């Protein structure tokens, strides 16, 4: 639909806009949604991770190049993980019951046989995260059809102290949506109905299992868009988006889910259904509890329904690719773009020359759209309601930036192929990194003025040992810091970690901008949060889930919640 | 400053835009900030409430026409309230200690003599809310200069079980910021420093006692604006704004504080300092606890520092005043405005003909800007970065709406006086209501399609007994429902309440869109929130404030937190 609209617009397009050295046109490509990760990058994992044993007995995944948490010791043998840099081990909480045949019978009674999944192949899929980094050993997946069934399941599991893992589209990147050991999987995929849509207010109410792309398709027929857009939209569920506070591509424009989610229904560990499903923009009656469930990764309750403020679909989209010589100029352009394009700005992404070189060297058919080789490149996308005005605004802005010397060169895409080729550079970095060898990946939020300092510092620290690249959602202060090396080795890792976490912590950054903590970074929370706040988080966890059955071993440090 | 800019723009303005029957120009007037209430209306209370005894022994305030909560019985005699429709009584919690001289000595030790206020006149002011509706009997106001002092005060009060009321600018409308009985007042007015401002990200970090208007003035020099604007901005503190989740005039554009506040520092009842003062747009590391403190009206902790995302100041502001014949057209225009003006829309207010007639009848020098007398009137404001484009966009939108028959007449303000006269109609309603006689005021959030149904239903229900008026922030779904009558009487009140609350509850509305619950509506929370969620709120209150010393008798039902 989007593509069709773009093509129609393209056919209508008559004039070519000239800016910088070349002339191009318009518009964002239709994204291959499934192949893009939550952070907006293309990921192609054709094979499962091949393991080899390292010197110190840890496992490595040759595709993903991460250190493994798991060791084959006692209860730990069930826990397989190939993606974390954390060296800590997790033990199965011995207080949790183990599933028995009576449990299965009970679940079949309330859900019906076919929604109680014991089939090994389906469980294999449900036990494994989509990057093949984490693997649990659950023997049971439950598929509730409505809130009442979720409530009955949880009430039973709580009384039996059976641990559960809530699962949506299972597209998370930190092992939050798969079991660590034998937790019962509660997948809400059958709860996929749109319940209401109000064309006046733009408020959509739907069940948690709705796939994001399906919601987008539904809204498209009404002339609206979701306030978030993710690479994983073809699989991810809105309930999962809410539970992980997913960021994505539209955050710079429409803000986080804490602002756009108007209401929720959630079921707590004891089966209590919390109706917080308001559809109002303004409601100051008591504590706004829904925020506890946004981003708590299913550890406080299972989100069953969502009310969200959608946005009118606007007709005009433009994309510019510009080059500039230093990071200070990037910052200044961001400030100017916010001021001059403010109301139509919809993306502001950057990459450094190391990233550009990597893409040019490793991906076929990619070329630098600007003539000059510079230290930094920026993509600026605008979305608005008036084609002529918006285009003029973008052009005027770019010309002004050129005159000020902030921009050394730049182009505006003149057709969908050009737009696609611009995005290909930005989104191809991850693919190029994988082709280049071993890669250490970090997803950091930092004050914008500090973002490139960590890249430079790390470059100085690592010298010839590795190629350090910086790119990401500059408009949101979200850096994707990637370190590429010929081989994966402990000396290099020792130089990177905990240095990167400590650096981030020292500058009041976040060690997880948009992916959450899951099982991967649960023990690293103190790099971004104070002990006092983490203690309160643990108290709230205990208040809402006293037996700790909801998504155990995730989000909070294991020492705080495993008793 | 704003006025100067507007005048300069006015002098530059050469062309007059014609739309509908008349030709006018541009721009928002500089608001008399002190005289406007949080909901955006002008309030003039020149005298204190004069009391008279009603048949059933309750007190009434002749200016404010609300039933009084207080009766002169035992501990209740200290509690004076002239503004609530709730009939329930509040008793001083006997578990709280009473202040003694040792306490005062201790506070003088840590704060210094001059910041421990015992002066009767100053206490009189601090004990009384700005509408003169609520009055406490505190004997002590403390003025901490920094977080450490707030922490020491609370640690001491918690150990002594001395109740406290956190106070900012004391501009609230529901009695949340004054003592109910003898609570110690902790006013953060001396904590008024801007701590940091990042021109790249637009993130401002400041102390809680900063006055909103001072922050706006500071930002103006940097070319930024606060994401919220309130009538009370000349007095209210940013800490109070955050604690009450203040709405205001820019909510339709920039969203609620849950979206724009990036971080907080808060001190809990036991003196624990919670550092949640992040400056990042994206941070998914654990539960986002700051949301508990946004809108909890100081009952979970005292906010001491705030980090907030500010917005670039845009240069072009336009204001249209239009008439339409039915509410359905108003809804359709809202939908079209969101779509066609989406990115520049900054206000969408409506009033009905009863409201218009009232203003025309009771306020001097006000005239209807459009020639036709219609059932509804709408104000549409746009704010953008491009004067010509924005104006063209607004004109095109209005012409289209005229062609479609949604609008019967309309004008665009051509100068500041015209803009001011348009706003005067909308903002003069409260003043006109007071001149008209007794008035019952309700601040409701409702689904937009239901907003005018309650007005019609109530009109049918009350018949000739009263004049029912509907107006408010239509773009945010916020109705100000006002019932005007010659005299205040119980029969009328009995017809209105609990009917209005029940109607609102039935349609999943909120009985407090933007003012909070305070002491006025603490017991009415169940009209908008489920018992399960209120129970969790009470649990969280007990978790963070086990002795209940923080702003007691407010927000939550007294029965749940008074032990």
From TrEMBL, chains A, B:
Gene: LOC104729545
Organism: Camelina sativa
Pfam families, A to Z: FAD-oxidase_C, FAD_binding_4
Name under which the protein is recorded: D-2-hydroxyglutarate dehydrogenase, mitochondrial-like
Keywords, sorted A to Z: FAD, Flavoprotein, Oxidoreductase
Family to which the UniProt record says this protein belongs: Belongs to the FAD-binding oxidoreductase/transferase type 4 family.
PROSITE patterns linked to this entry: FAD_PCMH
Cofactor: FAD
Domain of life: Eukaryota
């Amino acid at each position: 639909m989007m593509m069709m609209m773009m093509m129609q617009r393209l056919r209508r397009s008559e004039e070519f806009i000239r800016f910088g050295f070349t002339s191009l046109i318009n518009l964002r490509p239709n994204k291959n949604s499934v192949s893009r990760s939550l952070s907006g990058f293309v990921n192609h994992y054709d094979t499962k991770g091949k393991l080899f044993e390292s010197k110190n007995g840890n496992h490595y995944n040759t595709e993903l190049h991460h250190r493994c948490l798991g060791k084959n010791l006692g209860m730990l043998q069930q826990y397989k993980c190939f993606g974390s840099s954390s060296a800590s081990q997790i033990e199965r909480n011995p207080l949790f019951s183990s599933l028995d045949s009576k449990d299965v019978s009970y679940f079949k009674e309330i859900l019906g046989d076919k929604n109680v999944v014991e089939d090994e192949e389906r469980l294999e899929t449900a036990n494994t995260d989509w990057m093949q980094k984490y693997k649990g050993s659950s023997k049971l997946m439950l598929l509730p059809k409505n809130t009442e069934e979720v409530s009955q399941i949880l009430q039973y599991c709580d009384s039996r102290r059976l641990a559960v893992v809530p699962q949506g589209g299972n597209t998370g990147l930190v092992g939050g949506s798969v079991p660590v050991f034998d937790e019962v999987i509660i997948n809400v995929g059958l709860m996929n109905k749109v319940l209401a849509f109000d064309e006046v207010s733009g408020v959509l109410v739907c069940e948690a299992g709705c796939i994001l792309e399906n919601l987008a398709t539904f809204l498209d027929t009404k002339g609206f868009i979701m306030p978030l857009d993710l690479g994983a939209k073809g699989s991810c569920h809105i309930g999962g988006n809410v539970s992980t506070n997913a960021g994505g591509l539209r955050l710079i424009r429409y803000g986080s889910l804490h602002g756009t989610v108007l209401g929720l229904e959630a079921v707590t560990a004891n089966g209590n259904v919390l109706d917080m499903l308001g559809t109002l923009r303004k409601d100051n009656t008591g504590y706004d509890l829904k925020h506890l469930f946004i981003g708590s990764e299913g550890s406080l309750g299972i989100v069953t329904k969502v009310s969200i403020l959608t946005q009118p679909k606007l007709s005009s989209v433009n994309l510019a690719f510009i080059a500039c010589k230093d990071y200070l100029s990037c910052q200044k352009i961001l400030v100017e773009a916010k001021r001059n394009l403010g109301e139509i700005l919809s993306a502001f992404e950057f990459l450094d020359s190391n990233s550009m070189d990597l893409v040019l060297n490793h991906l076929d058919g990619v070329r630098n759209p600007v003539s000059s080789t510079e230290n930094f490149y920026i993509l600026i996308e605008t979305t608005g309601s008036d084609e002529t005005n918006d285009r003029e605004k973008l052009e005027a802005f770019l010309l002004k930036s050129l005159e000020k010397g902030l921009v050394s060169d730049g182009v505006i895409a003149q057709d969908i192929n050009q737009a696609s080729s611009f995005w290909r550079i930005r989104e191809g970095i991850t693919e190029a990194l994988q082709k280049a060898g071993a890669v250490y990946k970090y997803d950091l939020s930092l004050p914008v003025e500090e973002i490139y300092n960590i890249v430079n510092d790390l470059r100085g620290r690592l010298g010839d040992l590795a190629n350090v690249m910086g790119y990401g959602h500059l408009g949101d202060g979200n850096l994707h810091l990637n370190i590429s090396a010929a081989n994966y080795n402990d000396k290099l890792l020792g130089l990177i970690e905990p240095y990167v976490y400590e650096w981030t912590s020292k500058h009041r950054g976040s060690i997880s901008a948009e992916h959450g903590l899951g099982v991967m970074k649960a023990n690293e929370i103190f790099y971004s949060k104070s002990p006092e706040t983490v203690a309160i988080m643990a108290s709230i966890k205990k208040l809402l889930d006293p037996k700790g059955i909801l998504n155990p071993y995730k989000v909070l440090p294991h020492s705080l919640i495993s008793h």
